[in-house]
Structures are given as structure tokens and as C-alpha cells.
Amino acid sequence: MNDGGIVDGNMSGNRNAGKINENSACGKVWLAGAGPGDAGLLTVKAAHLIEKADVIVYDALISAEVLSRISQNTETIYVGKHSGNHPVPQHEINQILVREAKKGKKVLRLKGGDPFVFGRGGEELETLISEQIPFEVVPGITSSVAVPAYAGIPVTHRDYTSSFHVITGHARKDGTLSIDFDSLVRLNGTLVFLMSVSSMEKILKGLTDAGMDPDMPAAVLERGTTARQRRVTATVGTLKAESDRAGIRTPAIIVVGKVCALADELHWAEDRQLGGRQFLLTRPRQNISALAGRLRNLGAQVIEMPAIHTEAVCPNEPLKSALERFRQHREGKWLVFTSPIGVNVFFDTLKEMKMDLRSVFGGNGKVRIGAIGSATADSLCEYGLIPDAVPGTYNAGELGKELAEMSEPGEYVLIARAEKGSPDLIPPLTDKGLLVDDIALYRTVYEINPLLKEEVIRMLQNGEIDAVTFTSASTVRGFVRAMGESGMDYHSVRAVCIGEQTARAAAEYGMQIEIADQASMDAMVEKITELFGKKQLK
Ligand code: SAH
């Protein structure tokens, strides 16, 4: 992928490049499609731009799952609706793009689906050209094809149709449609109507008045490609009544044609193990993706809203002194870790201090390594250290007991972990007569994502989020803090927790508790699948 443009402002490929390069202070606009909702349908290029842009100008169709990929350090401008539900006028959006680019910024204009399919992308480019602002266009996956695909409707099929047509159902101010129904019916292709829910009756009548068989299969597809997608299949004669019965609302598309009848056989999206399910993940961003990826692979939609992040203690003089004591200690000694993040931060800090592991381990006493659980042990293995002690139960008290059992009085224990780690670890060690240094490597900082907050509150209140996952008590507290003074009632929130301690924190807010059988990501996925998965795979 040519991603040089956004990284270094290279404007090759733009027909205005020559003129505009002279004005090096000018930024650039990427007009990109975000696809129809499922974040997996972002193009590689759009996903990259979301990470690299200085400012993202987005509208109402961008799903929460896509929004959750935007870093908090990226500025965002919402142009979906003004307060009071009025759409932001197009000329105002154009001016925002011009203004931001002229500040020298990399501007990502993110639109639902494809930017040129009823997206007014052309108009935005005309403004940019008149202001001599460089741009690129990144096509997106359009709802007109992807939404039927996720409903099991191929827009073409050799046996039924050889063309498909995408039509706007948007009515003029006087309520009439500018659609040539006679021509459409004669085409004999699949007809896809966007922006068509409120004009459904007129569209269907227009088709039958122009001679279409009222028994022609038809479908209306709501919020396609998302966890909440719904499909109503009927005929041109019955679709309106069936759609009303189901309470279909915008955004939805109407599909008319014989291919609609295939949906009953070819549907698949909601049949995936976690199809139709939506989860909110609150892990720190450093390690959110493994869990998110696995849930997505099972068909779930996943909103990532990190509730905490970690910050290394830097510089870390206490660690430096403790490592010196460790080196000089002549009896046996333990180096103990209680989280994978702790392991990573430990080695980063050593690097920062330009300290070689051989000098740390090089003294006289025998060195042993302790890890609280399998994930921490795995992280240590990545650095070439295989722990000597890993308790069967993931719990600070158990780790303390096991270390004490394996040691003789007078041995030295250096615990390298988070600030305010569980106090339960220490008493078994000191009772045994071990010398203990409990060193803070990193601290937990709560994160608030204002971009997602309101949308997440709305989704939780509407029951659109099946469960929230918590992997530590601090993620619970961070999540509640992020929800702010929203007056949220947490009783309806189903909390899938990694262990007892996390569950206790969630229970304090009255959440419905589920606890993974073990403190691991595998066990979290298993628990979620057991609770929310389809009993039988298709
Ligand atoms: N540029 C967009 C379309 C913008 S017009 C694209 O290429 O998809 C907005 C209309 O798109 C909505 O009224 C609806 O008809 C349709 N639409 C967009 N996303 C949709 C979705 N996830 N499910 C159903 N319809 C959708």
C-alpha cells in the first residue's frame, strides 16, 4: 500500500500536486469510505488513515465499532447532525475540510459505505479543488452490495439476473420521487434502493404500477453487517406490511428481485457462533486486540473502549537500587512478576537504564523467577526466562504462599509489579523471614473516551450490548468513571469478569456477574461463547 502520502505529506498522484507543493503549510484531505458498519469491512487503507490522521471529520453512519478504532489523541469533528437533529449543511462541511487542511493537517473525511455512492463526495472534492487543497479518494465497501451479501442475497446470480442497479429513494422536498419506474422495471435486474424506508410505499407502488409482478421477491435490510442487522423478506406486494410489522427503521435498504428469495437458503451472518452479538471490551489498549480478534472471528461485533492504560514509572530509582541489592545478595533470591504488562515494562526499564540482565543475575546467590499465572509466565518465556514458580490459582495470596514454601529464611524477593498491587502477596513472605522489596514498575491511569461515551450509554440503555468484559478491578472502576454522571443503571449490564476480585468490583455497582473458569483470555472467550454462543454451528 502506498501510505507514504499520509506519513510524510507526499502528494504524488494528485493532479493538483504541482501547484500545491509550493504551499508546504497546506495539509491534505483523504475522502474515505468506512464501509457499512462491520469494522472488518474497513479497507486496509482506511484503517491506516484512521491511525495516522490528525483530524477525522465523520458523520452519522460511522459505526461505534469503527469509531472505537480512533485514538483519543486524534481530533474528531462530528458532522452527522447538529443539536436539535438538523443535518449539518453541506457547505458547512466543505468549509470545515478547507479550514482544517489549511491549518496544515492530515484530514480524514470518513463517510459511511463508499464516499461516491450517494455520499456527496463529489461536491466536497469540488470545493477542495477550488481552494487548491490536495486530496486522495479511498473507496469503501458500499452498503448497496455488502448489506445484501450479509443477508445472504447475492446482487447478481447467473440464473436470475445479469445486472443490479442502485437507486436513491430520497424524496424531493414536495415528497415526490424522481425515479423512472418504467425503465427500471424493463431492466429486469436487481434493484437496490438506498435511503428508502420513508418512501417504501411509493417505491413499491411505483414498481407495480409500471408492471412489475407483485409476487416479485423483495427484502428490506436494516443495519446490515452489524450485530443488530435484521432482514425482512417478502414480495413487492407484501413488503411494506411485513416491514411495518417488524418495525424496520433507517438505515435500511430495499432490495427487489428474484435473488431476494435466495436469502432463506444463503443467510449466514447471524448463524455464526457469536453472530448478532455485540460486546464492549474495556482492557487497556496494549492487550485488547487478542480478545477482540477472537470474538470477531466468532462473528461478534466488538467495541473497544479501553477504561485504563498503564504508564511506566520513569525514571525508576527504587528499581535501580533494588536491582543492585538483588545482585549483591548472597543467598537465594526471587524475581517476581504479577502481570504480562509488568514483564514488558520491566525489560523496557532495564533497556532504558542500559542495564544488562547478566549483571543483574550475575551475583552469587541462586536466582529464581516467580509468575502469578500462565499469561505472565508466557511473557517471561518470550524474554528467555522460564519461571520456577507459577501457582495453580491466579491469586496474589497463593503466589506468596508458594514462594514462601519454596524458600529458606533470609532469601531476597524482588517483586516488580504495579503500584498499589494486592497486599496479600507480602505477609506469607515476611512471615517466612524473607527480605522483600515491593517495587512499583507502572501505574494505572483511567481513560475516558468522550467520542464513544454517549453512543455507548445509548447502546447499553437500549440493550444493544450483550456484555461488557472486565479483566481487572481497575477496568471496572475505569469503565464506571468513563460513563461519568450519566445516571446509568448498571443492573442491566452483564459483566464477564476474569476472576473473583474483578467480579467483586463489578458487583459493587450492581452489575450481573459472570466469571471465567480460569484467569485467561481462552477462558474469557469460552465463557462468552457458553453464555452467548449459538448452540449449534451451521
Ligand atoms: N455511501 C453510502 C450510502 C449513503 S446513503 C454507501 O455506499 O453505503 C445512506 C443510506 O445508505 C441509508 O439510508 C441506507 O439506505 C444505506 N445504508 C448505509 N449503511 C447501511 C447499513 N449498514 N444497513 C442498511 N442500510 C445502510
CATH topology of the largest domain: Rossmann fold
Summing up helix and strand content along with how strands pair, one would put the structural category as: alpha/beta
Identify the strand order in the major beta sheet: 3-2-4-1-5
Q: Give the number of DSSP strands.
A: 20
Report on the biggest sheet. 5 strands, parallel
Question: What is the helix content?
Answer: 25-40%
Oligomer: single chain
Ligands bound to this protein structure: S-adenosyl-L-homocysteine
The structural domain count equals 4
Named CATH architecture of the largest domain: 3-Layer(aba) Sandwich
How large, in whole angstroms, is the Cα Rg?
A: 28 Å
Describe the SSE topology.
Layout: H1 4-8, H2 17-21, E1 28-33, H3 44-52, E2 55-58, H4 64-67, E3 75-78, H5 90-102, E4 106-111, H6 121-130, E5 135-138, H7 143-150, E6 164-168, H8 181-187, E7 190-194, H9 200-209, E8 217-222, E9 230-235, H10 239-246, E10 252-256, H11 263-266, E11 278-281, H12 289-297, E12 301-304, E13 308-312, H13 317-328, E14 333-337, H14 340-352, H15 357-361, E15 367-371, H16 374-382, H17 396-405, E16 412-418, H18 426-431, E17 435-446, H19 450-461, E18 467-470, H20 473-483, E19 494-497, H21 500-508, E20 512-515, H22 521-532
Parallel strand pairs: 1-4, 1-5, 2-3, 2-4, 6-7, 11-12, 11-18, 14-15, 14-16, 16-17, 18-19, 19-20
Antiparallel strand pairs: 7-10, 8-9, 8-10, 13-17
Helix pairs in contact: 5-6, 8-9, 14-16, 20-21
The site of S-adenosyl-L-homocysteine has 24 residues, from helix 7 and strand 10.
